[in-house]
Amino acid sequence: MNVLLIGSGGREHALAWKLAQSPLIDTLFVAPGNPGTAQIGRNLPVEVLAISQLVEIAQHERVGLVVIGPEAPLAAGLADACLKANIPVFGPTAAAAQIESSKAFAKRLMIEAGIPTAKAHIFDKPDSAADFVRASGCAWVVKADGLAAGKGVIVPESVGDTLDAIRTLSANASGARLLLEERLSGPEVSLIALCNGEHALPLPPAQDHKRLRDGDAGPNTGGMGAYAPAPHLTSADVTDLMAQIMLPALHALKRAGMPFCGALYAGLILTEHGARVLEFNARFGDPETQAILPLLDGDLLATLAACAGNGVLSDDLLRWTGDAAACVVLAAEGYPDTPRRGDVISGIESIDDPNVLIFHAGTAWKNNLLTTAGGRVLGVTGIGATLREALMRAYAAVDRISFPGMQYRHDIGAKAMQ
Ligand code: AMP
Ligand code: GLY
């Protein structure tokens, strides 16, 4: 089968790496891909939002499955365009992807389906949100309704900061509608399930690290590292969460006439009263995927094709090795605000540990030198029998890689080690 994978991040390099291991694969095309995916498949210089061009390529190359990585092409209707052209696609339609692209849509769906989530109030005007906050006399988590590339949530400490957050988020198009949400506390876990519209197979839960600096300090980022499986959840907990959260969400979407085929990602917070959903994403997590896929001992392509409707979604499609994996993200100087590009990356070629995988994200070849070309540059994943071993391998590899201004967290997985 020819496969067209959409995206260019570390998540897509990890997906390409795993898809290419399938006995079903013929040619793997990646649009636009990165220097890492170029080592595995054929990169095509087409942007992720060039929908008609991507569909034409899929038709011309007789692609049997399109796999969509990032949220923007999902929200823009790439899956709809593939389905219209009768091309099987792993990734939801724009309607179903609203579970990520509109936090108000997701909140209403969760309430309708009885899914445990933080209580929230939805406002179409910033002034009404501000009046509500003043009247309540307390701080609220402020969320922009629309896609905001990881910059749509502010967790203020005071009424004044909440009012500032309303002003900041409502200044962007994504914040034309706002949510004010009760603040919850507890460890956060990412649970991702592969869905065919009706049924779902859970992946091992993962722990992301969203803040830029050690000790959860600094600004929010797309994710500075992740490990799996997350120790907070047993497999019995995952079974419960599938029944309380993932399947009710899928069934509510189906009832609403928007069946969800793709990776459904629940961002959970484990409060003392139980798990609550903070957000849904309509895709694989980045960098969670770089820590989850190395634990998969099974055929990812067969599983994604089954989700897209070419087969049965049976439990034995996915087996897990029982190992642990940890991914440390190496980010560019200036990330997350204004990452610097063009710094020369050295040391990757000296890493020969078979239990280490280097996933490219923002990298580019320039005059035969590998250089930085984005905010998150590389994801270094270590695999081991235990999380401790996985972390030791990942950090030993990180020590060999360098580029000017390289930023990374030294404490990925540290809380789990205490
Ligand atoms: P989200 O994009 O909705 O997952 O929010 C980004 C981050 O903001 C989350 O990973 C949490 O750390 C934090 N956050 C979001 N909602 C809440 C909430 N209701 N209470 C506490 N923290 C939150
Ligand atoms: N790592 C968080 C996300 O993919 O949204």
Structural class: alpha+beta
What would you report as the Rg, rounded to the nearest angstrom? 21 Å
Annotated CATH topology of the domain at 2-93: Rossmann fold
Query: Are there runs of 5+ residues with pLDDT below 50, and where?
Result: none
**Total beta-strand segments:** 22
What percent of the residues sit in helical stretches (DSSP H or I)? 25-40%
Beta-strand level of the residues, as a percent range? 25-35%
Average per-residue pLDDT, rounded, comes to 96
CATH architecture assignment name of the domain at 2-93: 3-Layer(aba) Sandwich
Number of helices: 14
By CATH reckoning, the class of the domain at 2-93 would read Alpha Beta
How far is the first residue's CA from the last residue's CA? Answer: 46 Å
In this entry the ligands are: adenosine monophosphate, glycine
